[in-house]
């Protein structure tokens, strides 16, 4: 019984607008993907389980650089590390990582390097839920804003509100998401055809499980697992870390 983590780090970070791919951008002196990897590797379940295999997806031309980076920092850590070339979409990147999982892995976490400050306790909570028999698990937080569905108003490109969506049963879903390996493989295999194109790919792995008609369970998310999408998100994360150090 082995827990693996897939760390998705192959995105370009268009919305961040940094010259480096997002996962390689420094946050308080350390790359985002290293923050995220450290969080995953520090997780311990109540039964003492931890992540023993780490598979990282990278953009083209960055495989050797990322492998060297991880070896330099995690060289002493007791973890098997694989670095693979990502795909055109996040879904395709996860599929490439699944393909290299060692045979002994039975539980897989899928986590975004773009969520560098997700605490170890969150990964542990997700693994514990999978081990408790929930084959697909996502962390979720209540939605705090009022949410409205919109549509085109006329031919001008303006939007108008169609309806206000009841938010009590909405959750903003984060990563790490956790899966029994067999279910994750089945879901990605079934969804492979639409995974190559951003217009048809799912935005998270649980979405593929939902498409199979199988249940996905929710555990409590964590504010610290917020996603870094824009330059402002990165600045906020810098402030949070500075505050913790103070
Ligand atoms: N082809 C891709 C696209 C995204 N990701 C990863 O999936 C996570 C979530 O993606 P997102 O936040 O959208 O990152 P980017 O695609 O890099 O950002 P943007 O959409 O602004 O370009 C990130 O850790 C990113 O590196 C990936 O591994 N492979
Ligand atoms: C997987 C994810 O982080 C869950 O919230 C999210 O869907 C990624 O979305 P992105 O547009 O690829 O950042």
TrEMBL record:
It comes from the Bacteria. HAMAP family: IspD (MF_00108). The record marks 167, 227 as: Positions MEP for the nucleophilic attack. NCBIfam families: ispD. This is 2-C-methyl-D-erythritol 4-phosphate cytidylyltransferase. One of its GO terms (molecular function) is 2-C-methyl-D-erythritol 4-phosphate cytidylyltransferase activity. Pathway: Isoprenoid biosynthesis; isopentenyl diphosphate biosynthesis via DXP pathway; isopentenyl diphosphate from 1-deoxy-D-xylulose 5-phosphate: step 2/6.
């Amino acid at each position: 019984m082995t827990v693996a983590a897939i760390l998705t780090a192959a995105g370009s970070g268009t919305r961040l607008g940094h010259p480096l791919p997002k996962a390689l951008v420094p946050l308080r002196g350390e790359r985002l993907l290293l923050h995220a990897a450290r969080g995953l590797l520090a997780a311990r379940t109540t039964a003492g389980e931890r992540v023993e295999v780490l598979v990282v997806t990278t953009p083209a031309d960055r495989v050797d650089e990322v492998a060297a980076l991880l070896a330099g920092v995690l060289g002493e850590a007791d973890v098997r590390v694989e670095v693979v070339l990502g795909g055109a979409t996040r879904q395709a990147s996860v599929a490439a990582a699944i393909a290299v999982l060692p045979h002994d892995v039975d539980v897989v976490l899928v986590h975004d390097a773009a969520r560098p400050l997700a605490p170890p306790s969150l990964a542990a909570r997700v693994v514990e839920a999978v081990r408790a028999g929930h084959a697909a698990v996502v962390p979720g937080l209540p939605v705090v804003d009022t949410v409205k569905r919109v549509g085109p108003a006329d031919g001008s490109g303006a939007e108008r509100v169609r309806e206000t969506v009841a938010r009590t049963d909405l959750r903003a879903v984060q990563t790490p998401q956790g899966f029994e390996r067999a279910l994750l493989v089945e879901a990605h295999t079934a969804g492979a055809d639409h995974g190559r194109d951003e217009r048809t790919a799912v935005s998270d792995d649980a979405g593929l499980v939902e498409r199979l008609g199988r249940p996905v369970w929710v555990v409590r998310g964590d504010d610290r697992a917020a996603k870094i999408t824009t330059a402002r998100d990165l600045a906020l994360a810098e402030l949070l870390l500075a505050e913790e150090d103070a």
